[in-house]
UniProtKB/TrEMBL annotation:
The keyword Transferase applies. This is Sulfotransferase. Its EC number is 2.8.2.-. The keyword Transferase applies. It comes from Mesembrinibis cayennensis.
C-alpha cells in the first residue's frame, strides 16, 4: 500500500478551492467559514486528522510505504525510485525519467482535459506546496498546529509530516 500524505494546511487550502468549484459539494462564502467547518470535522469526507490517525496504526507495517506530497515535489526522481523499489519494479533510467515526466503535476494538468474531461480544471489547480500561507491567519495557523499536535504530533506519520513541512521549509 502506498500512502500519500500532505501538509494538513495545504490539504485544507486545496479542499477549500475544490469544494467551491464542485457544485454537488458545499461551498463556502469565505475562507474563515470553510476553516471553521474543516476544524470542526464538518467536511464531506470526514476529518483529515482522524484519517491520519487511523492510517498511523498501519504506518510501520512492512507492506505500507508512506510518502509525502512535499517529498515528491522536492525530489520526484528519488520519490519514483523509492516507490518502484517498494513495489519491486526495476526501472531503466529512461523508464524512470518517463514516469517522472508523465506523473508531474504540470504534465497531468496539461493532459487533464483528455484524462478527466471538464473535471480536470477542478482537480488540477496549482499543485504547489505552501499555498496555505495565502489564506491562513496567524490564529488559524496556530489552531491548525495545535490540532496537528493533538491528533498526530508524536506519531510516525506526524513526525514524517512535521519533518517534511517544518524542518525542510
Amino acid at each position: 500500500i502506498l500512502l500519500l500524505i500532505r501538509n494538513p494546511k495545504d490539504v485544507a487550502t486545496s479542499f477549500y478551492h475544490f469544494t467551491n468549484a464542485m457544485s454537488p459539494l458545499p461551498s463556502y462564502e469565505t475562507w474563515d467559514d470553510f476553516f471553521i467547518a474543516f476544524m470542526t470535522k464538518k467536511m464531506p469526507w470526514g476529518c483529515y486528522f482522524e484519517y491520519l490517525s487511523k492510517w498511523n496504526k498501519y504506518a510501520a507495517d512492512e507492506n505500507v510505504m508512506t510518502i509525502t506530497y512535499e517529498e515528491l515535489k522536492e525530489n520526484p526522481v528519488l520519490g519514483v525510485k523509492n516507490i518502484a523499489a517498494f513495489f519491486g519494479f526495476s526501472l531503466t533510467e529512461k523508464e524512470l525519467q518517463s514516469v517522472v515526466e508523465r506523473s508531474s503535476f504540470q504534465t497531468m494538468k496539461k493532459n487533464s482535459q483528455k484524462t478527466h474531461g471538464t473535471f480536470g480544471n477542478i482537480l488540477f489547480r496549482k499543485g504547489g506546496v505552501s499555498d496555505w500561507k495565502n489564506l491562513f491567519s496567524e490564529d488559524q495557523n496556530e489552531k491548525m498546529d495545535n490540532a496537528f499536535e493533538e491528533h498526530v504530533g508524536g506519531t510516525k506519520l506526524g513526525t514524517k509530516l512535521k519533518y517534511e513541512v517544518y524542518c525542510k521549509a
